[in-house]
Specification:
alpha+beta
């Protein structure tokens, strides 16, 4: 008698639970980074373990789903502990909200620690026109003036980034930025920032998007000022 074979989706006898386990695992792999990817791995491993033990009766398969659960749960726990232990002062929280808001608290803390908080004095030059930008600045408190060929062209206000136009590219500054009052700011070395982002691609994606957004806002503000003047 010929052997009858056929293909089917195979959802009977609890197979649907096995399909769900692999579906959740696939979703976890394409989900945004922490914490959803780790949560997805934990859920997928639990579903797979339930299928292996309750329906397939396969202890070997159950073992590997248990291993997957332990790995996912441990990574999720480390993430949650790192988030809980990441604390910020009032000025650090303002910095995080400015262009690190899409990063996890732990990653924002790590990036923030690459730079330093400094109190600058009135008249101090942060950036010289035509020279490579040494640092990316975030102005927390105070103010600065922007000039081009000695002529004033704009102002920097609290919450603005300074040097964002060329800090990541390493190109020369397009203008001079001078403090107009004693100011408090955070800064990070431009070469150090570029190296950091090379080592942390997820952070690069977020920071580049935030910097481009800040540049777009500055451009629209400048165009509005020109139209009004």
């Amino acid at each position: 008698m010929p052997l009858e074979t056929g293909l089917g989706l195979g959802l009977a006898n609890g197979a649907w639970l096995g399909h769900m386990a692999f579906l959740m695992l696939a979703i976890a792999l394409i989900a945004p980074p922490m914490p959803w990817m780790r949560v997805g791995i934990v859920i997928a491993s639990l579903a797979g373990f339930g299928y292996a033990v309750g329906f397939a009766g396969d202890l070997g398969l159950a073992f590997w789903f248990a291993v997957l659960f332990v790995i996912g749960a441990s990574m999720l726990t480390r993430y949650l502990l790192a988030e809980k232990s990441s604390r910020f002062s009032a000025e650090e929280e303002a910095l995080r909200s400015s262009f690190m808001s899409e990063m996890t608290r732990a990653n924002a803390r790590h990036l923030m620690d690459q730079g330093n908080w400094i109190t600058g004095r009135h008249g101090e030059v942060l950036i010289n026109e035509g020279e490579a930008i040494s640092h990316l600045f975030y102005l927390h408190d105070g103010g600065a003036a922007i000039s081009f060929h000695g002529q004033p062209v704009g102002q920097v206000r609290c919450g603005d980034l300074i040097g964002d136009a060329t800090a990541l590219s390493g190109e020369p500054a397009t203008g001079t930025v001078r403090l107009t009052t004693d100011s408090r700011f955070w800064c990070v070395s431009a070469p150090k920032l570029r190296q950091y982002l090379d080592l942390h691609p997820d952070a690069r994606t977020v920071i580049e998007r935030q910097i481009n957004s800040a540049l777009d806002r500055k451009l629209r503000a400048a165009n509005a000022a020109l139209a009004a003047g």
